[in-house]
Amino acid sequence: MRHGQVDSLDILQIAAAWSGTQLVMRASGELDLCSAPQLRQALDEAADRMPSGVILDLELISFIDAAGIRAVLRGAELFGPRFVLRRTPAYVMRLFTIIGLEQQLTFEIDPGSE
Fold it and tell me: 14, 37, 59, 70 - which has most CB atoms within 10 Å?
């Protein structure tokens, strides 16, 4: 990648699909100051659909900054314990732990890790 160009893998993409009455959102790319509004908007639109819960899959997030973390917290504000983070990368989990958010968020336990 040359200076000033954006790698297509860095652009935040959000795919959403229903699983029963829950909405599963899969985010990929960078979740940062530029892209956080996109996630916040997707979460606000999800609230309008009134799902029984929202699962945010973070497995393919390549970068997250403070604005991205605030966007994730928007989901917790909107849905409370019905907002679950799935496949959170270790480096993102470390950030949540360092800033004390791991107790305020709900994480899906990976059945394959037990």
Answer: 14
pLDDT digits (tens, 9 = 90+) for 15-47: 999 999 999 999 999 999 999 999 999 999 999
* Spatial CB neighbours of 78, under 8 Å, sequence gap ≥ 6: 43, 44, 46, 47, 54
- For the chain, list the domains and their CATH numbers: 13-108 (3.30.750.24)
Q: What SS3 string covers 36-64? A: HHHHHHHHHHHHHHCCCEEEEEEEEEEEE
CB 1 within 8 A of CB 10: no
pLDDT tens digits for 65-94?
999 999 999 999 999 999 999 999 999 999
